[in-house]
Amino acid sequence: MTFSVAVIQFTGLPGRERENRERSVRLIEDAAADGARVIVLPELAISGYTLNQDDLSAAAEPCDGPTLSAWTEAARRLGVVIAGGFCESDGGRLYNSALLVGPDGLLLHYRKLHLFDGEKLIFTPGDRGLAVASTPFGRIGLCVCYDLRFVEVMRVLALQGAELIAVPTAWVRGFDKVERDGDGLIGQARGAVVQANLNQVYVACASQGGTTGDIAFLGSSLVADPYGRILAGPLAQDIEATLVAPMDPAIAQAALVRTERVKPREDRRTDVYGVTAGGQTL
Question: Rounded to 5 degrees, what angle do the CA atoms 49, 55, 60 make?
């Protein structure tokens, strides 16, 4: 089964969550019209990515709020799966959260585990662990932006059977000494591509682009396959656009066996090391 994955690079404007939500639905509709069956939106797409606590508090919503309703209705009407980020409020706390939504409703509710820089002053670290959902378009895992800098995250999702990892992002400067490598890739994008290869999964990263306030985004949205080949992107940092790339879960399975004696999952030395998630060693 081959289908298409879309990453939508757009900039959510702080203080305009209703407009951002409505625009996200229009962009989802456009991507579906272009043939996409799995559609990934950026980190904090609805609130806009900002470190202004007042703006985030005003835009925050519960998991079962208007964004889940809007995306569920779109997924049902269009027959697609949608991943994207929003600012969640729960028990007086704010979370940098993401949803995976299908035609039948909520598939995954994720809270960003690793908060980046000033996010630590506003958000509560995620407490919902790492999970993978079965969808009509393969098994999909979900994480957010800075989570990719911790290799255990993608490895755990892969070992739980993910064939595609959807990554809402808002890539900014502040981690790497050199912004781009010799191929013009930012460090975040290069890391995603390398991990796609090492974990034998598709990776779809959708970033914000352009500038909001004093935050300049790096764009670089892309889709990579389980062999570490870039299928679409990376997008320039100052544009809003949608990329569509093919995905075939059979390729993710084929990538597990590189040659008769090179089988990355089977070659793991689980007698020496392992990773634990949800109380289970993988």
Answer: 80
Rounded distance between C-alpha atoms, residue 246 and residue 223, angstroms:
9
The residue to which tokens 């951002």 are assigned: 20
Per-residue pLDDT of the chain (282 residues; tens, 9 = 90+): 899 999 999 999 999 999 999 999 999 999 999 999 999 999 999 999 999 999 999 999 999 999 999 999 999 999 999 999 999 999 999 999 999 999 999 999 999 999 999 999 999 999 999 999 999 999 999 999 999 999 999 999 999 999 999 999 999 998 898 889 888 899 999 999 999 999 999 999 999 999 998 899 999 999 999 999 999 999 999 999 999 999 999 999 999 999 999 999 999 999 999 999 988 888
Q: How far is CA 112 from the centre of its chain?
A: 10
Question: 76-95 in b/e burial notation, b at 16+ Cβ within 10 A?
Answer: eebebbbbbbbbbbeeeebb
As a whole number of angstroms, the distance between CA 73 and CA 181 comes to 41
